[in-house]
Amino acid sequence: MSEIRTIKIEALRRVEGEGGLHVCLQGNVVAFVRLSIYEPPRFFEAFLQGRPLAEVPDLVARICGICPVAYQMSSVHALERALGITIGPEIRRLRRLLYCGEWIESHGLHIHLLHAPDFFGCDSGLELVERCRDEFQRGLRIKKHGNELLEMLGGRAIHPVNVAVGGFYRAPRRTEMEPLIPAFEWGLEAAVEMTRWVAGFDFPDFERPYEMVSLSHPDEYPMNEGRIVSTSGLSIDVNEYEKHFEERQVEHSTALHSVRRQDGSCYFVGPLARVNLNFDRLSPRARQVAEEIGFSVPCFNPFKTIIARGLEVVHAYEEALEILRTYRPFNPSRSEVRLKAGEGCAATEAPRGLIYHRFAVNDEGKVTFAKIVPPTSQNQGQIEDDLRVWISAILNEKDEQMALDCERLIRCYDPCISCSTHFLKLTVERNAAVPPPISP
Amino acid sequence: MIADQLRSHVDLVNHVVVRLAVVPTDLLDWLDGVEHLHLCDGCQTGAPPGTLHRWEWPITENDHSSDIHGACPIGGLGALRSSGSHDWGIGQTLQLAERLGRLPSRVTLWCVEGRHFGPQDSLSAEVEAALSAIVGEIFAELSSRNGAGHLAKLSG
Q: Suppose A286 and one of A153, A167, A315, B25 were both cysteines; which one would form an S-S bond, judging by CB atoms 3.0 to 4.6 Å apart?
């Protein structure tokens, strides 16, 4: 009879939210890997029904405190499609500026407080700060810039209130934009230094033939618009998302898992997918840094997602500076909204990856249907699949070390478990023939 | 809710700024120039829901003197464990600020004993009933002190 090994991670550390991981080993074979999300379903899709569409951006922003802009942008674009609203170029640029703020804040936080400690063998950021004090100070200042931009343009950093269907409730004044310019000029150079720093980390040799998925736009690095593309050659309009991808309920998790509809396979979204699929549309400085540090695409090592995040912070600063410097106030701040029954969908690029929304509204402007697919739930299946392969390579480790290494891999995805609910209790059972039943 | 109520009061008090943090690490954005940081958040020590604790950083395990109800988190404030949905709790964030040399010279924690801490749980009736008294107690201290104060309310 093969040995039974049980490794449990009670709560996955340094991720947003709570989850658990249950691994069963039969001798040297990984019998199953189950990533379980314990947070109760959030029921947003249900309680949005019946609400006035004008309330949707404010409501969906509360799905996640770290990435409210992603939910707001996806929702307003989907509702605008439903109503046949076209936004002007000024609104389009401001929405990209807002997203730059969120990328800077989210990536800055993840890189320094959550992910970098793994590369130094530190148990937490508190240990790392003793060794990398200057880098930490720089990282916190970068994070602060993101919040300042969100506050200026969104009305506040927490659950921005200025996003509206059709545009913004108020367009900012130039006097509100200009004070950010010197800070962002510093930030661009700091982001370059930060990316050079993370590029020097020691990365595990772990690559897989991922199906990477992201938006792609012919003229710009994707944020709010584009077709959905993949590394296997998929290129579809966002309207076709549900023909190619579907959510499935898994017994061990309150979060739905997304798969490719054609064969039930998993796929990979996030910064590494975006960089792989849109490298030539990164800003000039970001591409220059990539060349300098020797980063090229295709790159299929999930541990190097931290480099992709660094490049995206460089890009976000550079694009934000261009918009801040050239901004001219405009009026009206939003397109006219005429109520009519309709249905529309949209996809944007949250810090953690592709996010998809579909809404239906009636002629009174009330939501009759809502579908929200966050990036973390799209990565759930891929994370489990990665762990099956990863664990196979580290079978000889002691349980405690295996648990730590599993957490390290999961953190590459920067899972926002709070978003994906529709911590990591890692149970590794090294067992006999029949896997145990799933515990409640 | 406490932050909103305090905002309506602190206009009458000089040098006090009220902010709402969605995650504890947001505090790190606001520490420059602050002489006295007041933090307000929920907690669970076993006291009745609605109980207000007041602790001074870096209170240690055996020092109960500054807590108005005699309770203290085991292991001191540095051991405060977050029950929110984000990894970095108040204790860790304050320790980080301390190690970076950015912690204000005085930090006071106002922690309200709660009943429900699960994701999506709403405010308990006991806490809701105690809100006015809690706001009053915090405001009384803020208005009795001189100098620049900064109050941060954690939404988690």
A: A315
